Amino acid sequence: MESDIHRNKAERIERSLDRCQPSDFETVIEGALLSAGHWFNLALHDMGFYPPGRDVLHLTKLPLEDFLRVEAIAPDLLQAYAEMEELRSPYVRGAEANGQAAAARALELLAEIRAKACSVRSHRMQLPATWDGGPGKK
Amino acid sequence: MQIAAHAEKIERMARLREKLDPLEDFELWMWMGMTIATHAVNAALHQAGLTKSDNYYSYHVVGLYVVPPARDGEWRKEALPLGDIVHVDLPPVRGELPPPIQRAFAALKVLEDMRDPYIRRAEPITPQLVESCRNAYRICIREVCELLPKLREQLHGI
Predict the structure, then answer these.
(1) Number of domains in chain B
(2) CB neighbours (10 Å) of residue A7?
(3) Number of residue pairs across A and B with CB atoms under 8 Å?
């Protein structure tokens, strides 16, 4: 999807997040993750890494070679998104204590992911002409 | 996860969902409806004895579960017996599903199919879509409550 549409979608979700309280930690984490997913895909497109027709669903869906490339180009962005994804199982799907602290962390990570995504530059890697951005979810 | 823990989360999320505007906040409203419905079918599957209710949590890499540390140790990911499912029939549930769970699954699938076009992409959000989403959510919760009457009491008025 085109970067400006990812941006609009992310910002819409963030406006909805404003309606949540810290005690709504499952919803905060899910909303932050949804928005972060759009920022992450925007970054992949703006780095020239994946074309707009190819979005990534989870980091685990990235082929390992592409994971290593993104890690080399934007390590902080990748790390923040990875940490965000790991909040879901214990606090949204699971019943771990300290959900409010996890939600606060999710919002910190979202702010970091948004800032990193908005400041990426072209990757400048020489990739094979046949490289099509990998088999991520279309 | 334990049925009571599912129910507690369902109630909390359902209260917040009521505060969201179905059109303006569609992405979060729909997504949390799906998340609530997933907790509900998981509780129903435990109640029916088809999946294990235990202290480990589903993960998006199907087949793996996230296991909390006993104390201050590390979180682990392990291949464990079927506990909570992530999506409809993912992982597949063996055995005969009671009719209410079959109907709940069908309704949850309607919600899950909204993710790609309306949340991850940007197809137009319309009042008809909202109605379809609302209807699927209600059916899913109603069918689960057939097996878990206590949950119906908990959600009364929400």
Answers:
(1) 1
(2) 16
(3) 89
